[in-house]
Amino acid sequence: MIKGRLYYIIILLSITAIMQTACQRVADPCLLSKNVYVRISTLKPADTGRLGVDSSLPNPIVGYAETNQVIYIGTKNVKDFYMQLSPMKDSVKWFITPDSTKAALDTITMYYQRSQVFLSKSCGYAHNYIINNVKYTTNRIDSVIINNGNIDGKSDVQNVKVFY
Amino acid sequence: MSKYFTSILFLLFSFSLYAQDDEDESEKPPITDSFYQLRLGFDVSKPVITNFVPERQAYEFELDFFKKKDMYYVAEGGWGRGYQDSAFLNYSSKNTFFKLGINKGLFPRLFPQDWDQAYVGLRYAIAFIYRSPATYTIFDSFWGNTSGTIQGKNLTAHWFELTGGMKVELFKGLFTGWTIRGKFLLNGKQFKDLPPPYVAGYGRGDKNSIFDFNFYISYAIRWKKKGL
Questions:
Q1: How far apart are the first and last CA of chain B?
Q2: Which of B142, B145, B216, B217 is the mutation pick for testing A, counting most A CBs within 10 A?
Q3: Does the ipTM exceed 0.85?
C-alpha cells in the first residue's frame, strides 16, 4: 500500500517537473511580414481585353511624386513593381517612366481606404488598404485599371494593371 | 505536442496500475458507499508557472462532492490576469471563471477507506473578462510609425472541457493529484479583433483549443450517510 502510494507520488512529481519545463517561458517572436505592397504590373493591350499581355519596361524609373523619392532605377526589363501606400494619407501619387526619359513620364494617383488589422499578440497590428479609384496621365500610358483593390499582403495578386 | 503525449502516457500508465489491482481483488464484494465526501482543492502549479511566465497569473480552485458509486460533482472557479507588453502592442486583461461538471471514476474502490481515484470528466465553463484599452504602434521605416488605441471591452467566453486525471490520498483527508484538460472555446469569434492576452481557467485567448493541466493539493471532509 505504502509502496504503491510512493509510486504515485513519484509519478506526480515527474509529471509536474515535465510540465513545468514545458511551460517555461518561450519568446514569442513576430514572424509575420507587416508591410503590404501594391503590385503594379505593366502590360500591352491585346485581344484578351482586361487580361492584356505582359510587357516589361526597358529601363524604368518609378518613385513617389510628392517626395521625388525613387524606388526603382537602373533595373532593366521590369514588369512588376511593388510600391507602398501611405498610412498617413488617403492617396498617393507615383511617377513612372518606362525608358528613363522625361518625355515619357506619367503619374498615377491611387485613392484608397485605410484600416488596421490585428495580426497576432506578438506582432500587433498592420495596415491594410482598399484601392477605390485611380487617376493617371497619358503621355505614354494607355490606361490603368484596378485588378484587385485589396492590399492585404496576399502574394501573387496583380493589384493594378498599367497598359502601355 | 510531445508534452501532451507524455502526459497521456502517464495517465494510461496509472490506469494500468489500478487495473492490475482490480484483477487481484475481483473476488471481493462491492464497497458500500456509506460516506459523503466534500473536497476542496487548490491548483498549486499556477502560482509556480507565474514565476516563469509573469504575464500569466491565475488562481484556480476545485470543489468536488462524492455522493455515490463513482460519480463526483465538480464546481471550479478562480480568477487571474494577463498582459502583453511589447513595442508593437500593450494591453492587459483580467477575469473570473466558473466551471461545472462531473468526474467519473474509472475503477471501483478496493476497500471502504480507499478514496484514491482515476477519472475522466466533462466541464462547461464561463469566464467574465475585462480587456483593457490597447495601444499599438505600427513601425514603418518608409512613411513613419503610426500609433493608435483600441477601446477596452467586456467579454464573455464559453468553453467546454474534457478532463482526465488522478487523485491520491496521502494522509487522512489530504489529497494530491493532477488533471489534464482539453479545452474547446465555443465563441472564439469575438476574440478575432483583439483577444485577451490570457484568460485564467482557459489559457491563451487567441487559441480556439488548448491543452492544460492542474496539480491540486486538496482537503476532504466526510460524513456518514443517514441510515447506514
A1: 48
A2: B142
A3: no
